[in-house]
Amino acid sequence: MKSLWNDGEASAYTTDLGLRVYTSRLLGRDRSLVLHGGGNTSVKIIENNLLGKSEDILYVKGSGWDLETIAEAGFAPVRMAHLLKLANLSVLSDSQMVNELKTHMTKANAPAPSVETILHAILPYKFVDHTHADAVISVTNTANGWERIQEIYGEDVVIIPYVMPGFDLARVCAEKFLQEKSDRTIGMVLMNHGIFSFGGTAQESYELMIELVDRAEVYLQKHDAWEVLPPNSLMRERESRLEIAKLRTEVAQIAKSPVILSSHANAQSLAFAQREDVNIISQQGCATPDHVIRTKRLPLVGRDVKAYAKAYCDYFAAESPQSAQPVTMLDPAPRVILDRQLGLVSIGKSAQDAQIVADIYEHTMEIIQRSQLLGGYQALSASDIFAVEYWELEQAKLKKGGSIPAFTGEIALVTGAASGIGKACVDSLLKRGAAVVGLDINPEIESLYNRSDFVGVTCDVSDEAAIAHALDQAVTAFGGLDILILNAGIFPSGCRIENLDTATWQKVMQINLEANLVLMRECYPLLKLAPKGGRVVAIGSKNVPAPGPAAAAYSASKAALTQLMRVAALEWSGDRIRVNTLHPNAVFDTGIWTEEVLNSRAKHYGLSVEEYKTNNLLKVEVTSHHVAELAAEMCGSLFACTTAAQVPVDGGNDRVI
After folding, report:
1. Within this chain, do residues 356 and 500 fall inside the same structural domain, yes or no?
2. What is the pLDDT of residue 19?
3. Quick one: 331 and 476 in the same domain?
C-alpha cells in the first residue's frame, strides 16, 4: 500500500479542516480501505463562538457522507467538552447518544455526527482516521487473529476486543486505550471491525494509516495468504435470461417488493462460488458487522430462496429474544446469492443498492479466502452480527418510513433511447426510480449516462440476434423486465403511393412493425414474471386515426403496430400485462424530424415551420417530455385499470376528434 499524499494537491488546502477533507478523500479513493460510506475521520479545532469564547470543536464525518467525495460540509462540528463528559457515563442508549450529539453541534444544518463521535473525541490526537482495511480484517477474522495482530504490530498499536459500535465501544476504548497506550502507540486495532491511526497533522495520521495497513498486507504476503487466484478451469455455462428472471421473481415474492438482481459472472466470483467448501466458508458471517445492513449475515448458496427465508426467520426467532427492546423482523430475502453458473448475484431495492452489495461482497470474498490461507476464516457470532443488524438506530429508520419512487426495484427497456421521445422516456423512468436499459442503433447510447441504474446497448432492432443479445445484457444487469417502451422507428421522406418503392415500404415495416413484434415476443416471458405485472407502451402516431398524404408506409406501419398492441392486450391480460398506445403528433425534438422532413411537411400544408409546430387546437408545441411523462404514468398506479387504450398527445387535432 502506497501513500497518495501529493504536496501540490495538499497546498490547495490551507486550513486544518481543509486538510482533513483532503486526506479523507485519499482514504476514500482506496476501496480496500473503505467502501460506500464506511470508515470515518475527524479533526479537533479551537474556534471562537459568537460570545468571543474559544471552544474545542470536534469535526467528525457526518452520517451519509462518503469519504471519497466528502467536503467540508460533510463534517459535523460537536463541542468537545460535552463529548468528554458523555464518555464518562456508565450507560447511554443509542437514541440518547444521537440526541446529545445533535444538540451539541455548533451548526444546526450540519449532518448528523457519526455514531463513533465519542470514540474520536476521547482519542487524544488532533487528527484521527478509521478504516475497515481488508488486509487488517483478513488477519483479525481468524481463530488466532489476536496473536497475529500482536505479531504484526507489537506495541505500536492497542488492540481492542470486539465491541459493538456506538457508546459501548467508546466507553471500552476510553478505559483500555488510555490505560495501554504508550509513547510508541501509533494506532488501534478493533478486532473484527477495523483500524485507527492518529497524528498531530493530517498527513501524519493518513500516512500512519497507510503504513499500518501495509504491514498487514506484507504479513499476508509473507504467509502466502495474499494472492487469491481462480483455478485454471472454471465452469462458465451461461444461464438463460428466463431462469435469472424467475430467480428475481422468487426473491421479490419473499421481499414483498420488486428488486434489482445483478449477476456478476467474472472469474473471481465464479471461482468463489464453485469452491468445494463454499457452503462452509461463506456461512460463517460477514467480514465486518456493519456490512450486515447491506448484505445480511449470510449469502444464499444455490437458488433455494424459500429455504433461505425459512432459515432467516429461524435466525430471527433465535436471536431476537436477547434484544434489549422489541425488534421488527426485516424481510427474509437474501441480498447475496452464490451460484455455480451465475457467480455472485447481488440484490437490492434499487440498482445502486445492488451495486453496493456487489462491491462489498467482492471484497468479502477476498477477505474470506485470505483468512482461509492464513489458517481459517472466523467471523463474529450470529448474536454479535444480529445486534448490529437490528440496532436501535437502524430500527428507527424503519419506523420513519417515507415515500420511495414509484418504480423502485423495477426494470424498464426503452428502444430508440438515444434521443427524442426515447431519451425523454429514459429520463422519466429514471426519475421514478426504475433501472433502465436503453437500446439504440446509435453507439452514443452506451455513454448516455454514467450511473448504476442505466445500461445503454447499441442495438439494431431489426436484427433478431441483436435483440436477444440486448435482452441478455438487460437481465444480467438488473434481473428481469417490468416495463417495455416501444419507441424506435423511422419516418421516411414524403412520398405518394404511386412513387413508393418496395424497398422503402419493407424497411419501414421492418423497423416500425416487425421489430416490435420480435421485441414483444421475446420480452413476453420476462414481462409475465414482473412482480407488479408487466406494462407495455407503444409510441404510435396521430397518423393512425388521421393519416396524411405522402406518408403511406409510416401510417400503415403505425396502424399495424396499434392493431398488434390491441391483440396483445387481449392475449396478455391474463398474465397481468397491461398494453397501451400513445399517439403523439408534431413532436419536433425527435430524430425522425430532420430539417428536411420538417420543411417538407410544413410546405405541404402551406404553413411556416413555426405555424406547423403549433398547428393544433390548443396552439401548443408538443415535446418529447410531454409524451415521455404520459408514457411513464401509463406504467404507474394511475393507469392500473387501463389496457388497450389509445391516447392522443397532440394538442388536439380536429381530424382525429
Report:
1. no
2. 98
3. no
- Strand-pairing partners, residue 538, are 486, 581
Three-state SS at 261:
strand
pLDDT band at 403 (very low <50, low <70, confident <90, very high): confident
**pLDDT tens string 268-303:** 999 999 999 999 999 999 999 999 999 999 999 999
Per DSSP bridges, beta strands 454-458 and 435-440 are parallel
Sort strands 75-79 and 187-190 into parallel, antiparallel or unpaired.
Answer: unpaired
At 583, is the secondary structure helix, strand, or coil? strand
For 390, residues 6+ apart whose C-beta sits below 8 A from its C-beta are 319, 320, 323, 327, 330
The radius of gyration of the chain from alpha carbons, rounded to an integer in Å, stands at: 30
CB–CB of 457/437 below 8 Å? yes
Starting from the edge strand earliest in sequence, which strands make up the sheet with 646-649, in order? 454-458, 435-440, 411-415, 483-486, 535-539, 578-584, 646-649
User: Which of 173, 190, 222 is where one domain is finished?
Assistant: 222
Residues 485 and 467: their CA atoms lie apart, in Å, by 14
Closest CA to 546 of 437, 655, 463: 655
DSSP 167-187: HHHHHHHHHHHHHH--TT--E
Task: Kindly state whether residue 181 falls inside one of the protein's structural domains.
Answer: yes
**Average of per-residue pLDDT across 232-254:** 89
**Can you tell me which residue has the cell 477474522?**
141
> What local confidence, expressed as pLDDT, does residue 654 receive?
95
Q: What is d(CA 501, CA 317) in angstroms, rounded to the nearest whole number? A: 73
Tell me: pLDDT of 237 over 90: no
Location of C-alpha cell 436484427: 463
Strand partners, 55: 47
Same domain, 366 and 499: no
Question: Is 603 a member of any domain?
Answer: no
Q: How many domains does the chain have?
A: 3
> In 3D, which of 134, 126, 122 has the Cα closest to residue 158?
122
Active site residue 153: no
Could you tell me the pLDDT band of residue 401, with boundaries at 50, 70 and 90? low
Q: Is residue 444 domain-shared with residue 388, that is, in the same domain?
A: no
User: CA–CA separation, 424 vs 626, rounded Å?
Assistant: 9
| 20 within 8 A of 59, measured Cβ to Cβ | yes
Residue 88 sits in a domain whose CATH number is 3.40.225.10
Mean pLDDT of the chain: 95
Residue type, 633: E
Rounded to an integer, what distance in angstroms lies between the CA atom of residue 600 and that of residue 588? 13
Please spell the DSSP secondary structure of 177-220, one letter per residue: HHHH--TT--EEEETTTEEEEEESSHHHHHHHHHHHHHHHHHHH
| Residue environment code for 28-59, b if the CB has 16+ CB neighbours within 10 A, otherwise e | bebebbbbbbbbbbbbbbeeeeeeeeeeebbb
590: confidence class by pLDDT, cuts 50, 70, 90: confident
Q: What amino acid occupies position 605?
A: Y
Residue bearing cell 455514531: 115
pLDDT reported for residue 398: 60
Whether 33 and 151 share a structural domain: yes
What pLDDT, in 10s, does the model give residues 499-530?
999 999 999 999 999 999 999 999 999 999 99
The answer on 102 and 251 residing in a single domain is no
**Residue tagged 470486539 (cell numbers):** 162
Q: Which of 308, 315, 361, 554 is catalytic?
A: 554
* CA dihedral over 320, 314, 376, 390, signed as positive or negative: negative
- Structural domain containing residue 442: 411-593+621-649
| Grid cell digits, residue 652 | 388536439
Closest CA to 492 of 547, 439, 550, 548: 550
